[in-house]
Amino acid sequence: MAASGTEHRRQRRLLQPAFHRERIAAAVPAILRTVQEASTSWEPGQTVAVDRVMNELSLTMLAKTLFSANTAAPAADLIRSSLPVLAGGLIVRTLMPEWWTRLPLPGNRRFDRAVHTMSTAIDEAVRSYRADGQDHGDVLSMLLAIRDTDGRPLTDQQIRDQIIGFGLAGVETTGATLAWIFHELGRHPDIEQRVHHEIDTVLGDRPPTHADVPALEYTGRVITETLRLHALWIVMRRTLNPVQLGGTTLPAGAEVLYSAYALHRDPRWFPDPERFDPDRWLPERAHTIPKGAYIPFSAGAHKCIGDALAFTEMTITVAAICRHWRLRPVPGVRVREVARGDVHPNRLPMTTEPRSR
Ligand code: HEM
Predict the structure, then answer these.
(1) What mean pLDDT is predicted for residues 29-46?
(2) Residue 199 neighbours by CB under 8 Å, 6+ apart
(3) Does ligand 1 come within 6 angstroms of the Cβ of 298?
(4) Which of 89, 136, 321, 357 could form a disulfide with 111 if both were Cys (CB 3.0 to 4.6 A apart)?
């Protein structure tokens, strides 16, 4: 969603219903199936590249949330294969001069092909949805149903831009956070045990549903704490008007970088900030944390539109995996943080261990 000011607010208002509670609830069965399909193929004692698995899960979950109809499955597959090329290419593009992007280099050609493949795939999905005329309860159906105050639908280009924007904003962020959750559980067996206890108590012998998400309170605190310690490294904003910030006046058009990663380590609000402590989010402790000190999804007009979807995806994934598996750290492997926009692990091999209950 690259628009700003009034146009951004207008688009945001139109898009918001795609992320309402009932749309997210409708996506949960597909989210659960995705996690189950991946984790039932694991063998006990296998080493799994958790960073890659979580990114792949996040990609598939989002593709299914965007297009759930069987007729759109080929489009979803093409988007799944092109999106990582597009995301990687965009990072390079923010660093390189504009003329560089026009050189006939292999990387630029791959990027252009990925843009073309994604656009064609989205157009194909749109055509099939228009042809069957049904509401599939997913994001694409919602985008097709949008009408502005003059009764106009979104143009094909706007639909393409939104879908690509959701993919770029929602895949690697969720994938990296999921990987960090399992990393933190792996190195804090006491916390992992409490998560297992809660999941067993709330779910018994059945898989998680959307209705279970609020009851999985401790699991929620683990996710909240992971988002604190492993937040986005840098987010950029541009001022539209002159603005006063901490005693400095910024002119209109100034580019401002801020780091949630650094903010979330302020000892005034987060005592012993490097400690992974999910219970700092117990209501009786969390009320001392001021608004604005914790912003994993940013704040204001550009706050993440997918925050509730991401939280649901992560809760369902953790619950579905932890019902059956412990993921153990591989001894001697040092996991380092790599900062792009998100901060992800350089690698995260973990060993699967079936849970005995
Ligand atoms: C743990 C997962 C996620 C994190 C940490 C995260 C974080 C963020 C942050 C910090 C921003 C603000 C960026 C800025 O101001 O430049 C943002 C924006 C956005 N996010 Fe997320 N996000 C996550 C998942 C998702 C998901 C699953 C979607 C699904 C569609 C999504 C869609 C978006 C969109 C469309 C925006 C732009 C909003 C706007 O400009 O109005 N995000 N996200």
Answers:
(1) 96
(2) 208, 216, 219, 319, 322, 323
(3) yes
(4) 89
